[in-house]
Amino acid sequence: MGLSLTELKQGAGYRVEPTEEGFAILKSERDDAAAFDQLVREVLSSAGREFVALPRQDAGAGYDGVFILPFD
Question: What is the pTM of this model?
């Protein structure tokens, strides 16, 4: 089924920061890198109906954030 915008905005286990166009899900220093990478992959696979997801990689080739742009 995938993740919804409502679930993503709740910020369970990650930081959520508003942006001009939507919001960003950001990894904090205490987050498990592998778990956050899995979350970003799940967000990317859930994108399409409600939102666009734009991932951002860190220097270690993992993800450090994903920008969420809702369609409405």
Answer: 0.86
